[in-house]
Design brief:
Mean pLDDT: 89
Number of domains: 2
Largest sheet: none
Radius of gyration: 18 Å
Helix content: 55-70%
Strand content: under 5%
Distance between the termini: 21 Å
Length: 147
């Protein structure tokens, strides 16, 4: 439970923002913008030990199109294309003996889509991150089921 009583105006503001399609697009763009920025920082770090210049250039070009996205679907498309380029670069940093091929759902066919040790570890990390984020959202009094 939160350390203090939840203010009633916060969940109400969340519902109002959720019902406002313009605000949903703004919030989604801000989240994806932050995600792409951090992904770019990770690619810069990977660049120190791997030749991923082509992938970084293509990733940054795709990330720049986010500002032109006007709908949630367009934002999701930019995110998906950038993610594909990110994982292509990430693959170059993983030793071949770990058999990491892709983060694509179509490339994984075992339980929970963990077809190799790297994907299994990524799944574990993402599950931990998801539970931490859900806990933080609940602690502030917001509804995790509402975008």
């Amino acid at each position: 439970m939160p350390p203090q009583p939840i203010r009633g105006d916060l969940p109400r503001a969340q519902v109002e923002a959720h019902l406002d399609s313009e605000k949903r697009v703004i919030v989604a763009r801000l989240f994806i913008e932050a995600k792409l920025e951090r992904s770019g920082q990770i690619l810069d770090w990977i660049r120190e030990s791997c030749d991923i210049e082509t992938e970084i250039r293509r990733f940054r070009k795709e990330a720049c199109t986010l500002g032109q996205a006007k709908t949630l679907d367009e934002i999701r498309t930019v995110e998906a294309h950038a993610a594909q380029l990110y994982w292509q670069a990430f693959q170059k940093a993983v030793p071949s003996k770990l058999e990491f091929k892709s983060r694509s759902a179509t490339a994984r066919n075992r339980q929970f889509n963990a077809s190799d040790p790297v994907n299994a570890l990524l799944n574990y990390g993402y599950a931990f991150l998801q539970s931490s984020v859900r806990r933080a959202i609940n602690t502030t009094g917001l509804d995790v089921s509402l975008g």
